Amino acid sequence: MIHAFPPLRELIDGEFLGAETYLNLLVSRSHWLYGQAHALTHLQRQAWGQTTSSLDVWQAETYYRAEHSRLNFSARINLTAGGTATLAYLNSSDVWTNIATDANAGDRWFNGTEDNTFDCSTFDIPADGMLRVRLTITASGGSSSAYVYRAFMSLRTGLTSWPTLPTFADGAGNEPDAADYNALRTAQQYLYENAQKPNIASAGAVMSHTQESAYQPLMRWTFRHGCTQRLYIYLEVTNYQASEHVYLYLQDEKYPSSGSRLATLLDLTANQDTGHNIDLSGYGLTKGNRYSIEIGVLNTSGGDHTNVRVGTIYLHDLGGVTRTYQPKSDWVQGNQPTAAQLNTVKNDIAQMRDEAASESPLWLDHFLQPFQLLPPGSGHADPYDGGTGVSTLRYSNHRVRLCRRWRYLRWRGAGHVVSVDGEYEHTLSDSETAGEEQVLDLDSLEWLDYGMQYYIEDYGSYHLQCAHEDYS
Amino acid sequence: MLSDPGHIAANAAATGAKPCYKAEIMWDEAWVDESERLLPGFSCQNQIVDPFEGLVSMGSAPIGRTESLRFDNYDGRYSRDKSGSVANIYGIYGKKIRLSAGYIHNGTPEYVRIFTGRIMDPVASERSAIIILNCHDMGSIPLQQKCSTIMYENRRTDQWIQTLAGLAGVSSYSLERGLITIPYCYLDDDFAMDEIRRAANAESGVAFHDVNGVLRFWNAAHWCNATSVATFTVADFSELGTQHSYNDIYNVIAVEYQPREPGQVATVYELKRTVVVPPGGSKTLKLKFRYPILAYSNYSLRACSGGGEDLTSQVTLTDVFPDAAASWNVEINNTNTRHAAFVTKFEVYGVPIEGRPAEEHEVDESGSDVKRRKDIRGNWYIQTEAQARLIGAILSQRFKDVRLSMTLKGVPANPLLELGDVITVTATRTGVNKQGIITSIKNSCGSSFTMDIGWSDFTDFYEYSGYSVVGSSPLGASGGRLFV
């Protein structure tokens, strides 16, 4: 992490309230939290696929933490008769263990529930601590399909509860006591625990499809709407074919299974190599709700053209964002704090609570990092055909991009950490314990400072399966 | 100021009051009254070790207490080498001793404690049958104890002191809450009492053993909003000496701090020789780590026989993780009863705590004056900017102007007064009319009971008055002011 969330002592009545010894530290913590709430956030890739035999539609992982033991999972399935959809995790013996199986034919929510929650506290987690989950579908005499819309860990077992925050008032009879100040500190601790979550990477690739006179979605990402309302996506369109379109859509999280396509964010009709900043604030989105971004191509003439490369996609602050409650952070000895000043400190903290009404909600969700299913060199294969080769979708050059926020990089497979300008790189080896999740202390990369963006990608014939940053 | 059991304050101010003293020694489990053998003409001195600086740099000037008591030793009671004596049976060195003093009121003695400590250096005289017991305060034994600990994170100063007190066997303590939090602290064969004082110093506080033998920690805000507990006029002392210490003026205070952070998992110990563990036997080593560790990761060990047979699987450790942040008392066991195990590789891995480049916080109050700079360096508990700012603010306030110190001599003893009490002194020729903090007390105990008082000017001791007290100070223009 960025090492700047200072410890702060709990107060008791009768102590002297200090500037350097208390209020400046208190506000410094709020600044750190505000930065976390407004951090550049990459989006979680959604997955879908269909098969006539068997297909791992989706795999993802996260470091399992007992305090966040609930797996939230939502998928829509459409199975043939005799087909199955199985959500499973990899146990400590490297055996996929079923969490839930659905063998009902037809279009329905996986496991009969739109938003599944599973208690993972009794799971036999591998020694490396990683919870690795996959959704597998099978078909029998037809084609089964599935969409995976969300996968994240939640709950706050044993963690700090949100306190009742005080309202300060000037003058005799309204003397704040230790409990009032400690409530602010406790709320910060609550938010700090929310901030401690994996930093997932956005997935990108070179994509196209070959189905004539048809629009095909090529990739989707999901996010929870909050205070970061600028969507940035870097797109490279090559081999553009006249009259074709590259669309970027904003839609409800579970579209097309439910909800609507809300807006067309981009409609590109030419080759380009450009970043796009898109203001999401004007689309009537609701804070706390989940949405998705979809990119696709309208192919008018068949053939493999109008290639789209997504360099990165993330959410960040719009320009001109204001912080309604800007706490005083330069207290000095001798200051006489006023109720208005302390209420500003309080309101600033309150505005980061993970609620829809908050200005800068600091969500808890621990998103799982989806795997890249394509090994390098597989060229224009795609992960959605279940090995039958009948799909029209084309993917290559998978890689993920991150903005450095935490200290540790967890990865599986072999790959490279590469600076955005390509000047620096570091090899992620798979040799220590092949196939197992590994950890790199990013502080060891002198060129990779906090706040820098970087790629994690395959190299040569090596395949980087999964990578994300973690706080411990 | 100690609470008055009855009439001590009144008798101290009265003429002709008769003093009384009570000396007790804990030979075994209980206090034994030795007052009958106590000879008049002894002294008891409590003071800040460096009275020249007085309270200006309180934290770096620990309080010490010494006492020289004279006892009648006609029967060799206090002589260790006297066969059958109490000292012979129980020993004398390090025994707890306490002294109370007061006045007789209506025929009944009233006492308060003026010293609790340990007997350190008995000096006996054969012909005069007198023994002088030189005693030090309760910090004297812990002062000689070295300890090691695991790494502690984010400990408030008083919490760390409490930990150290426990290690030093100090069970009686009264600690004000620390104003700051120390990010990382540990001991590596360090003197616990030294570390207690160093930790106190890291927030301009002070740690000492009081007259009751209780370890006390006062934080930097201890005297905020303090008021005078007694007033002394010319009639109350035989002499008043004043001193202005111009050499003690510093208008630039520079406080060095060294941020610390966990590093990458590293090899913190690497065996560079071959260790031989006998067949079926064991070998104990104390490994000293390159860096103190926040968390232990694992170890790697290889062993073989003298002929090269791999015995690694037959070599075990009794304790499988380190018992301290910077060292490991490790016992290596060889379960092979035929071959000696030659340990050729033993590496320990852990998350080290690394010192980041040091930084310095400077408070410059010199203006157009010549800069006179005082550096605060070398205290490893000062790890954050907040700590440095606290110390800088406190010291710059106390050093920037010349401060008056004085000594009141021949004061009729009021044993209720304690070090740290604020008292008022008024005099005529010197023009003194000020409040100050008691920095030393020397009790002269005889048929008359007098005290000499060291005093340091309390004027502008803090930059402001009326500091905000949590729970009782209102907010707003009528409210209290922030402390540092």
Most extensive contact: A-B, 45 and 39 residues
Q: Mind summarizing the main beta sheet of chain B?
A: 13 strands, mixed
Amino- and carboxy-terminal Cα gap of chain A: 9 Å
Shape of chain A: globular
Fraction of residues in β-strands of chain A: 35-45%
Instruction: Give the strand tally of chain A.
Output: 27
Taking the alpha carbons of the first and last residues of chain B, their distance comes to 26 Å
Which stretches of chain A of 5+ consecutive residues score pLDDT under 50? 377-390
How many DSSP H or I helices of chain B?
5
3D architecture notes:
The complex is a heterodimer of chains A (472) and B (484). By secondary structure, chain A is mostly beta strands. Chain A is built from three helices and 27 strands. The model of chain A is unreliable at 377-390 (pLDDT under 50). By secondary structure, chain B is mainly beta. Helix content of chain B is 10%, strand content 43%. In chain B, helix 3 runs antiparallel to helix 4.
In short:
The complex is a heterodimer of chains A (472) and B (484). Chain A is 10% helix and 40% strand.
Chain-wise SSE layout:
The complex is a heterodimer of chains A (472) and B (484).
Chain A: H1 19-37, E1 41-42, E2 44-51, E3 54-63, E4 70-79, E5 84-90, E6 96-102, E7 106-109, E8 116-119, E9 130-138, E10 144-154, H2 178-195, E11 202-209, E12 214-224, E13 230-238, E14 245-252, E15 261-268, E16 272-279, E17 290-299, E18 307-316, H3 339-350, E19 366-367, E20 369-370, E21 393-403, E22 408-413, E23 415-419, E24 425-428, E25 438-441, E26 453-457, E27 464-470
Antiparallel strand pairs in A: 1-18, 2-10, 2-12, 3-9, 3-20, 4-7, 4-8, 4-10, 5-6, 5-9, 10-19, 11-18, 11-21, 12-17, 13-16, 13-18, 14-15, 14-17, 21-26, 22-25, 22-27, 23-24, 23-26
Helix pairs in contact in A: 1-2
Chain B: H1 8-13, E1 19-26, E2 31-33, E3 38-48, E4 63-72, H2 86-90, E5 96-105, E6 108-125, E7 130-137, E8 146-147, E9 152-156, H3 157-167, E10 173-175, E11 181-185, E12 190-191, H4 192-201, E13 206-209, E14 215-218, E15 230-232, E16 239-244, E17 252-257, E18 260-262, E19 266-270, E20 275-277, E21 282-288, E22 293-304, E23 315-317, E24 327-334, E25 341-355, E26 359-364, E27 373-376, H5 385-399, E28 404-412, E29 422-426, E30 433-445, E31 449-457
Parallel strand pairs in B: 10-14, 15-29, 17-27
Antiparallel strand pairs in B: 1-2, 1-5, 3-4, 3-30, 4-7, 5-6, 6-7, 8-12, 9-11, 13-14, 16-28, 17-26, 18-25, 19-25, 20-25, 21-24, 22-25, 23-24, 28-31, 29-30, 30-31
Helix pairs in contact in B: 3-4
